[in-house]
Amino acid sequence: MTKKDDILTVEGIKNCLTTSFIGKEIHIFDTIDSTNNHARKIAKEGAGGGTVVLAESQTKGKGRLGRTWFSPSGVNIYLSVILKPQIPSTHITLLTFVSAIAVVKAIKDAANLDANIKWPNDVLINNKKIAGILSEMDAKADAVRFAVIGIGINVNLDIKDIPFELKDKATSIKIESNSTIDRINLICRVLENLEEWYNLFERNGVNDIIKKWKRLAVTIGRDVKVQSGNSLIEGRAVDIDVNGALLIKDRNGVIQRVLSGDVMQ
Ligand code: BT5
Fold first, then answer.
1. What is the structure's pLDDT at 5?
2. What is the dihedral of CA 18, 23, 24, 26, to 10 degrees?
3. Which of 47, 80, 110, 142 is the most exposed place for a label (fewest CB within 10 A)?
4. Dist CA 255 CA 230 (whole Å)
5. Residue 263, beta-bridge partner list
6. Do 197 and 231 fall into the same domain?
7. Per residue in 40-83, pLDDT tens?
C-alpha cells in the first residue's frame, strides 16, 4: 500500500461500507480540533443519527476528564458517530460498551488480532491501550437527545513515534501485527460492527450487550484499585450492573458501585 492509497476519502469508505444508516453521511477533515467537538456542533445544528466525522489528525483530541488523545496525522483512526438512541441518560455508559465491542470485533476482522476491554472505555492488546472511546451526550429531562461516540484507534503508528509518556501504555495494530493495515477497511468494519451491536441494543436492551462485554472484558474477577473522583476504591471487581457501573467488593465484603473512574490495576 502506498501512502497515497491510504488517504481517507468518503468515496473509499462508501465503497466498502455495507451499513444501512451509520455512515450514510460522512465528513472527513485533514486536521480538526476534535472529531467529537465537530460532531456535537453539527448534531446541534441538525445532523442526523448515523453521521460520521473523521480526521487525519486532531489538534485537541480529547480523552475523558479533560485528558488529551495523542492524534498524529495519517496513521490512525479518529472517528465520531452521532447517534440518537431512545434511552435514558443513565444508559450512556452502555453506548461505550457497544462501541468497545464493535472495536474489538473490527480489529479481529481487519487485522486478526485479539483485543480485550478494560472497564469502562479502553481497548487493550497485551495490556497496552490500542483504542479509546469517549461517549458524550446532549440530554434534556434525563432523555438523550443525541450522543456522540468518539473512537480513537492506533493503527499504523510506529513504536518510534509514540511519545515518551505513552511508551509503556500505548500500542498500535502495526506494532502488534508487524504489518501495515488498510485504515479504510478497518473504518468500515468498525462502523458495521457498531451498527450491528447498536441495533441489538435498541431492539433487545442491555442484556446481550452486557453478556458480550463481559466475555471480552479483562476487569471482572480481578483485584482492582479504581480512582473515582477523589476516592480510591480497592477490592475485587465482581460484576457490572445494568447501567455499566463497576461493582467492587471491598475488603469488608461491601459492594461499592462505581459509575465512572479509572482502573489502576
Ligand atoms: C479515552 O480517554 O481513552 C478516550 C479517547 C477517545 C479519542 C477519540 S479520537 C476521536 C474522538 N475525538 C476526540 O477528541 N476524542 C475521540 P481516557 O480513558 O481518558 O484516556 C486518555 C489517556 O489515554 C491519556 O491520558 C493517555 O494516558 C492515554 N492516551 C492518550 N493518547 C493515546 C493514544 N493515542 N493511544 C493510547 N493511549 C493514549
1. 65
2. -140
3. 142
4. 18
5. 226
6. no
7. 999 999 999 999 999 999 999 999 999 999 999 999 999 999 99
Q: Are residues 76 and 43 in the same domain?
A: yes
Residue owning grid cell 434511552: 87
Q: What is the CATH number of the domain that holds 240?
A: 2.30.30.100
**Is 135 a residue whose pLDDT tops 90?**
yes
Distance from chain centroid for Cα 182: 19
Yes or no: say if 128 and 154 are a contact pair by the CB < 8 Å rule: no
Query: Looking at ligand 1, which atom is closest to the CA of residue 262?
Result: 18
pLDDT of residue 3: 59
The helix/strand/coil state of 86 is coil
139 plus 34 within the same structural domain: yes
Give me 29's grid cell: 477533515
Atom of ligand 1 nearest to the CA of 76: 34
Distance 133 CA to ligand 1 centre (A): 7
Please give all residues whose beta carbon lies within 6 A of any atom in ligand 1, as ranges: 34-36, 58, 61-65, 67, 69-70, 78-80, 121, 129, 132-134, 150-152, 154, 166, 170
What is the grid cell recorded at 218? 479483562
Q: Do residues 263 and 226 touch, judged by C-beta distance below 8 A?
A: yes
The model's confidence at residue 127, banded by pLDDT at 50, 70 and 90, is very high
Q: Measuring CA to CA, which residue among 30, 225, 229, 63 is closest to residue 237?
A: 225
Which pTM value belongs to this model? Answer: 0.97
Q: For 79-97, how does the pLDDT look when each residue is reduced to its tens digit (9 = 90+)?
A: 999 999 988 888 889 999 9
Query: Could you report the per-residue pLDDT of 170-221, keeping only the tens digit for each?
Result: 999 999 999 999 999 999 999 999 999 999 999 999 999 999 999 999 999 9
The residue assigned the cell 446532549 is 138
What is the residue range of 58's domain?
4-216
The answer to whether 61 touches 54, Cβ cutoff 8 Å, is no
